[in-house]
Amino acid sequence: MSNKSRQNARLGPWLLLLLAVSAAADDHIVSELKRTYMGRTYPAQPSEVWNGGDKTYVREGGVVIITRHDLKKRWIVLPGRKKYLEEPLAAAHEKKPPSQPARIQEYGFDYRPSYEWSIRAASETATIIGLSCRKYIARGEAEYAEEVREIWVASAPPIDVKSYYEQVVKPNLDDRWLKIYQDNEDLRKGLVVKSRTMTEPAIAPASVIELAVTTVEKARPPGDIYEVPAGLRKVATRAELYAR
Amino acid sequence: MMKKSMLALGAAAALLLLALPSSAQSSGGLPDYARIDLRRLEETWNLLDRFAERIWPGWKGYQDVPFRFNYPNGVQMLVGHPSPTDGFELVPGVEVRGKKVYLDRRQEIPLELKPPLSGGGGIIPFGKDKQVQMVDLHMSPVAPERQKTAGRAPAGEKAPEVAPFSSESQILVNIHEIFHCYQGTVYRYRFGNLQFNTDADYATYAEVEGLALENAYLEPEEAAVRGALKDFLAARMLKRKSMTELERSRESEDDLMEGTAVYAETMALELIKQGYAPLIGAGDDPSYNGFRDVGRYLKDKLNTLKNSRSETMDSRGKCYPFGCFQALLLTRLFPGWQATFFQDGTFLDQVLETRLGLTGAEKQTVAAGLKDRYPLGEISNRHGLLIRERDRALAMIGKRKGRAYIINFKPLLEYVMPKGRGESYTLGLVNIFPEGIASIDVQDVSFRGEKSPMVWDQLYYAKWVDPKPRGKGYTLSFSSKEGEDIYYDAEFKTAGFVLRVPKIQVRDLKSFVKITVLAKLNPVR
């Protein structure tokens, strides 16, 4: 047996164990979201994503969304209020509400900006949480609102980017951002690790939202993270879920 | 302190400060218009020292409500706030009843502001490290025609239709907004503001509600007051047929919030009428008359009820007088009704119904008899006509396709009022001008519109659609350019309007052209 063969034989069990852990590990991303509005920066809101391929867990502030592609359902969980709502997955891609309501009594109160987006790669690059990143600037113009997003995209994050895009990113994109992602491989195959979104709404003062990813890793998720925690009450509607 | 600030601000900013009009730099580092607002605030507190407990039992803490005054020259003044945001600097040596005063002059432009100023606003949570509920007022100079003194119209000239401005009305605004902050300590706000475009039935029965409230208020006999209030409640039931449960709750909650705040103003006036020694005089604020003409302001409250009830398109604005007169009539019939009113979470109309002992069956009977006591046919025809015109205007504007132009006035820090050609119709925050907007003037910004349908939307934006654009559809001339899309001393011209403005941004997009007005003053005035 050569030295190399002996070394491989010694590493063999460790390598197998490592591969086994890696195979059982899910993508884990932790980030913080900070909002500044009217001169006040609000305390950072933690956000956490677990992506296990056919199941995902997304926690933002006090709301947890567990998506089970294997069961074709989604749970919206409010652990603090001990309530959850179950929805069929189809509802996640439900038809968009019309831009104007059917009742004339409601017309004109609820302005929802429909942005026309343009995006360009900036010249800046940086290393953020150990990952090589490139900056992109997206500018959205709506009739009565505008938004500028500065996005830092890591090109080779240590996660399954294809699965992350399909399961976590894509379901949350509107038609226009979906087109941007489809046209831009760097975005589709990368991970946004830092962003700064400046919004000038129609009437309210401007606000800034900053996102900073603090952890990107492959790890084994704790406990039954893709299940609804025990002891929570199931409700039938969103109104019931969010009612105080 | 001024010298130190100027050094800190740098040479360019210092030059700007030196260029400011003299009236903006009075003693103590506080502009005259801001000093007057502080004196009005002191007078407000003085009034509440005397009357708060009699206006609303338990009303305390009125002096601890911070105020922010936003001026159209970009200056902001903050009074009594425990945690100012960045940019506010302490004004040394200026305090109001021990409350510190701060100015934020970072956005200041050399626009001369000549008192008197007046303004409105609302309650917002504000503060850098500690957020508190605060009164936020947007002030602007009183229009010259409102500064005329009543009864002094020269021979042959018509007396002004609008009553001349006096600072008493601003002190009443202060009382109103401070009362909102008190409400926040005793009442849990649940439903949000009413968002409801009127229909013919709504407008008709809202007018009957208003008539019934006026009748009840003017009626000397208690039995007749009760009868008129039952008419009010029956009309409300009929009015609400096209409303959802949420809209009904919102309307009643608006009556409670805004109505009791106007009630606080009205009760203050009633108490002033019985005797009041003002703290400040004409030397402090030349527009203040010490409530000598208190009857005028009380009469204004009744006039507001009369005007508001017949406004076809307005739903939310009615809550101010309707809520106020419900509260006044509760006080007349059921003294002490306020004791746990906010804490109970019931609405004014619910309290009235309970206290009057109005059953469902009786309400139906009263409702059936409304046609005998009110000119329902005439009222309904009048409102129906306007509602049909509004709906036609909406259909017309919806069909208009072509190149859209959006003119954004939001950066100007002013409440902009377009002057329309002919009638305009409001749906939500959309204001339709079927004959177009004739003009918009804000300092050196001038918009002149042709006779062509236009929309004023979301408080700050004009929209015009060119159905037959020729070529690019517009011309743009300017003195100088900055970056890709910012132009100085510019004229933007289309077949529908001409916009002249000191500084604009023009973004020619796929779906629309957006013109953002960035400055309202020419550099050399």
Structure description:
Helix content of chain A is 20%, strand content 43%. With 244 residues, chain A is of the alpha+beta class. Chain A has one domain: outer membrane lipoprotein receptor (LolB), chain A (Clam), CATH 2.50.20.10. In chain A, strands 1, 2, 3, 4, 5, 6, 7, 8, 9, 10, 11, 12 and 13 form a 13-stranded mixed β-sheet that branches. The relative contact order of chain A is 0.19. The model of chain A is unreliable at 14-22 (pLDDT under 50). The longest helix of chain B has 29 residues, at 245-273. Helix content of chain B is 40%, strand content 21%. In chain B, the strands form 2 sheets. In chain B, strands 7, 8, 9, 10, 11, 12, 13, 14, 15, 16, 17, 18 and 19 form a 13-stranded mixed β-sheet that branches. Chain B has a 6-stranded mixed β-sheet with strand order 3-4-2-1-6-5, covered by helices on one side. Mean pLDDT of chain B is 92; it is low at 1-27 and 150-155. Chain B has 13 helices and 19 strands. The interface between A and B is medium-sized, with 18 and 40 residues.
| Major protein interface | A-B, 18 and 40 residues
Q: Unreliable runs of chain B, pLDDT <50, ≥5 residues?
A: 1-27, 150-155
- The secondary structure category of chain B is alpha+beta
The count of β-strands of chain A is 13
Please describe the biggest sheet of chain B, giving its number of strands, its sense, and whether it closes into a barrel. 13 strands, mixed
Shape of chain A: globular
Total number of beta strands of chain B: 19
- Average per-residue pLDDT of chain A, rounded, comes to 89
Helix content of chain A: 10-25%
Radius of gyration of chain B: 25 Å
Helix proportion of chain B: 25-40%
The main pleated sheet of chain A reads as: 13 strands, mixed
The first-to-last residue Cα distance of chain A is: 71 Å
Count up the helices of chain B: 13
CATH topology category name of chain A: outer membrane lipoprotein receptor (LolB), chain A
Supply the CATH class of chain A.
Answer: Mainly Beta
